[in-house]
Amino acid sequence: MKNKKVYFIAEAGLCHNGDVKIAKKMIDVAVDACADAVKFQKREVSQMATKDVLDASFTNFPNLGKTYREVRETLELTKDEYRELRDYAKEKNIDFLVTPFDIQSLIFLDDLDLDGIKLAAHSLTDIPLLEEVSKRNVPIYFSAGMCSWEDINIAVKTLDPNSTRTKDGTNPLHIFHVVSQYPMEIEFANLPMITELIQKYPEYTIGWSDHQNGISLIPAAIAMGAQVIEKHFTLDRTMSGFDHAMSLEPEGLKKAIRDMHVTSKALKYHPKEVLNVEEFCYVSFRRTIVAAKNIPKGSKITRDMLTTKAPNRGISPKYLPDLIGKIAKRDILEDTHIQFEDIEL
């Protein structure tokens, strides 16, 4: 991934609301926006929380269920539906990633030929899950939110104990800087952490999982060195369900990916010299030394005889002090560019 184009993951999450038709439309939106990957989420609801939490009344989305368990179960897709989505993504030539939230979900995904596994920030310290994920020979993405450096170090050692073991020879780990707030307040973005992660883990690819309402931080994250971007999206922010309100709609997703690539291009390094693309301005507008008045042959040149004007036809103004006191070898007409051969050096 390093020194290659930035990779954009369009996070569909659960914004399909448990409807495979909506999920397919989301894949279409991701493809139309030129995302590199689309990502969904898989949970075994019974493993999410204790029964008292799952069976408690939950009134946020009454159309999806009356308890937290009912809402969560409504949002889950079947194995056949996941196969259908995976095949559809292959047909559309977009990478297909999924976030498993528990070991049962990871096993559920095993035969889907995923292009990558993403781990949410709250799974960072779930060592049993991380140990199982480390056995899968696919790229692994994980969010380093609400954690310490010790947590990240343990996660890295667990997920990649032998380092660089993917089938294509690239490193398997991609670490996202993220702030686990939905939506994230701008003042807590802490984008310098991207640079710090790059310094601490130079062998891995560092990314930015963006939870802000908007797209303004994506170019900034890339400028800080992020090489993978993850962003939630939905078909309609007014839909009932988790994450819709903080997600990008289709046009916003297009703009985010557009800005990502524009910024990535702008970060291409060029040596500090006159570039080919600057040649016109260099020739047309760069000022050089011009005679401010007629300078007769044999005259000693004084400062008042010299000025600077475009185009770039003669001696650079940086040599102007060197010409003072020198003798003109020929008549130099007013408003003409002076050449070194005109002067006795």
Number of separate domains? 2
Number of strands: 12
- Flag low-confidence runs: none
N-end to C-end Cα span: 56 Å
Mean pLDDT: 94
Number of helix segments?
12
**What coarse outline follows from CA principal-axis ratios?**
elongated
Key attributes of the depicted protein:
single chain; 345 residues; alpha/beta; TIM Barrel; Type Iii Antifreeze Protein Isoform Hplc 12; 2 domains; 8-stranded parallel barrel; two-stranded antiparallel ribbon; 12 helices; 12 strands; 16% strand
Brief write-up:
The protein has helices spanning 20-32, 51-54, 68-75, 79-91, 103-109, 127-133, 149-159, 192-200, 217-223, 250-266, 279-285, 320-323, and strands at residues 7-13, 37-42, 95-100, 116-119, 140-144, 173-177, 205-210, 228-232, 288-291, 306-309, 327-328, 343-344.
Structure notes:
This protein is an alpha/beta fold. It folds into two domains: 7-266, TIM Barrel, CATH 3.20.20.70; 276-344, Type Iii Antifreeze Protein Isoform Hplc 12 (Alpha-Beta Complex), CATH 3.90.1210.10. It has helices at 20-32, 51-54, 68-75, 79-91, 103-109, 127-133, 149-159, 192-200, 217-223, 250-266, 279-285, 320-323, and strands at residues 7-13, 37-42, 95-100, 116-119, 140-144, 173-177, 205-210, 228-232, 288-291, 306-309, 327-328, 343-344. Strands 1-2-3-4-5-6-7-8 form an eight-stranded parallel β-barrel, surrounded by seven helices. A two-stranded antiparallel sheet has the order 9-10. Strands 11-12 form a two-stranded antiparallel sheet. Strand 7 (205-210), helix 9 (217-223) and strand 8 form a beta-alpha-beta unit. Helix 1 runs parallel beside helix 4 and helix 9 (217-223) packs parallel to helix 10. The longest helix is centred in the C-terminal third of the chain and has 17 residues, at 250-266. The mean pLDDT is 94.
